[in-house]
Amino acid sequence: MKTALAALALAVTAAASVQQSPPASPNPDMHYQLGPDSLPRDGVPKGEVRGPFTLPSEAYPGTQHTYWVYVPAQYDAAVPASLMVFNDGQAFKNMDGDLRAPNVLDNLIYRHEIPVMIAVFINPGRRPDQPEPTPQNWGDRDTNRPTEYNSLDDRYARVIVDELLPALSKEFNISKDPEHRGIGGASSGAIAAFTVAWHRPDAFANVISFIGSYTSIGFAPATADRPMTPGGDLYPTLIRKSPIRPIRIYLQDGSNDLDNEHGNWFLANQQMLAALHWANGNADKKGDKGPRYDIAFTWDEGAHSDAGGGAILPDVLRWIWRDQKPAN
Known about the structure:
The chain is an alpha/beta fold.
């Protein structure tokens, strides 16, 4: 009898344990799907993705950047092309991933919904002995990505403007108008894109920011040998206290994004949006005749992934280039 009672008690305890276990949380990204503009379409000419190419860096001595160049089927060397640069290029060009930018560019350029443009997929810098970032490993632990992407100084802007653009211009006819140039990324690649436009609005006027890391990842406290290094959470303050740059920016983030020792990503992106709107409103109030930030955003329920951004990438590109669509 004691044995039977003990077995029954164990069974009840086990059942209670099962009943008390919380249900598995649903994947917040499960609802995001790629639309037809992100997939190959019959009859649409395919652009060519050339590379990989290697770009030695003077801004970060001892490192090099791997990049690929998308050349649309409609490119005409006699006509200056627009330019779109994607940080973490391996993710944006991955044809099995969430972004699949080459398909999007093929479809939108073919339908004259965005201008004919050269696109560059550039990876974070690395030493020759370090591994190349991949769709599975973006390089946060074994490349120069954290330093390049999360710092607020102008070194990464120098990589793009002073190193990459001259290399591209040797082979392609690229517009020199900053309004015909864009740069984008996801996570730390997004804040890096904004940093390029922040320091060099004369070179890039358009920014795509998916799940941007406007948090304190790049922060380092002051030591006896160096001053404090700010993190990306300083940007809302800089936006409010600095002259407005002529930047068009699309922000996307999800309510299930990261919340850790570096900050809360969703709140950080909302702070960015609030600062940009405040700067515009303050300039209007003062009658400032200068530029305004051109802003659009999407808040969704996604996590820290490319799923939400990938689902809207075609619409984001349409919005960014909405006043530069070629004639049909």
